[in-house]
Design a protein that fits this description.
Structural class: mainly alpha
Shape: globular
Transmembrane segments: 12-34, 46-67, 105-130, 150-180, 318-339, 351-373, 385-402, 408-423, 430-452, 458-480
Strand order of the largest sheet: 1-2
Protein name: Putative tricarboxylic transport membrane protein
Number of domains: 1
Domain DUF112: 18-434
Oligomer: single chain
Keywords: Membrane, Transmembrane, Transmembrane helix
Number of helices: 21
Organism: Saccharopolyspora hordei
Number of strands: 2
Radius of gyration: 22 Å
Strand content: under 5%
Amino acid sequence: MLDNLLLGASTALTPVNLLWCFVGVLLGTVIGLLPGLGSSTGVAVLIPLTLTVEPVTALIMLAGIYYGSQYGGTITSVLLSTPGEAASVVTTLDGYQMARQGRAGAALAIAAIGSFVAAIASLVLLAAVAPPLASVALQFGPPENLAVMVLALVTMVVLTTGSTLRAAAMACAGVLLACVGIDFGTGQARYTFGSVELLSGVPYVEVVIGLFAVGEVLHQIRLGAATPIRARFRDLVIRRRDIRDSAGAIARGSAVGFGLGILPGAGSTLASFLAYGVERRVSRNAAQFGHGAIQGVAAPESANNAAANANFIPTLTLGIPGGATTAVLLGALTIYGIQPGPLLFDEQPELVWGLLVSFFIGNVVLLVLNLPLAPVFAQLLRIPYGYLYPLILFTSFVGAYAIDNDLFSVWLVLVFGVLGYGMKRFDLPMAPLVVGIVIGGLFEKALVQSSALLDGNLWLLATHPIAASILAAALLLLAGPALTRRLRRRTTPEGTHVR
């Protein structure tokens, strides 16, 4: 492996490739700041600019846009509760609360540190075990994917603050919203009410912008004029204790992100939600989640960066994209005349290892660029909200319109903004709804394929060891708390009060 890394370093460390790596990271950060644009759109739009350079240089720049946008999306999630990237949605839950408490700088800094550590750890694993892990990922068929989707839904429902029934209802509502559009099994339109725009389904980005950005603005307006945050500069800087408290969350988030990232189609969004759920489950301060827990920022940010890197395993070794952005990158590879697959590492070692080593360099650039600037970004919260709210609404609606140059996206943002306001008013959890929408389509696809594979008898999922193990974990997670309470009542002497 050392020889391969040296070969990659000799490719990635040329002045031209270093320059394009920096440009990619910088552009990616800016793209991530813009609600609705996202890394997949950014990469797709900028592919034509790379056609005049060498393929390895083009891929280094496009990959820089990919992971740069992950951090750019974090900035708006924390400061404005407006996710620039789908994978940053869960960061708003605690990141924005930290910002409201005057700790935006610490939230942004731990996001940068967590992303950097996760990226480096996942890249070491990527370089060491990419081909063997690809063969493991190949064992995941529709039954195993279905089990993963069930586990993700159960995790989010169980670990959401407040009523479990409300969380389950919101998750079901999200799955139902994901059913709008073309029926995967029959090819017929359903729940579109004659709308051509809805044939492709309810667009996820517009939903997220409406629920989180517009809904939050409407909620704050109802509460009254909030005073700008006047945090002292030293409060905006991350403390040693924050890093110590987040170390475990970063490690667990990296592991979850890498594990899900190697699965074709799982993507970094699902990884960030699952990492948040796991962290809340194991944390001693579970009650603080949703109210500004720094672990609630560190875990999902580590997970989405680790998943972003791990997504390249199925993309490069199998030619199967790990997520939306790697699907676009896969298209770019074919434009450059490169055929991904098991032989790519042997046939084009300079390109593959040069790209992998550029990940190391790009993440160092990302950390150096963003860590010192975290307190500076946080100064944005000093702007009076009378100026900030119109800015948030303007960027939200313009970002939505820019997705397809269609006013329908703007109307959707407005509708879901009102819905988000109503959910805040009646204390309905948003995270299960968003998870339902994100994985609803994947869940239905895996369900239909599994049903066809098992002749309509889903009980035969028990004959698939991996799927059965994952479903058993989901069942244990769902029934575990009730079983524990019942066991405690039986073991407690009669007449003793149990808390």
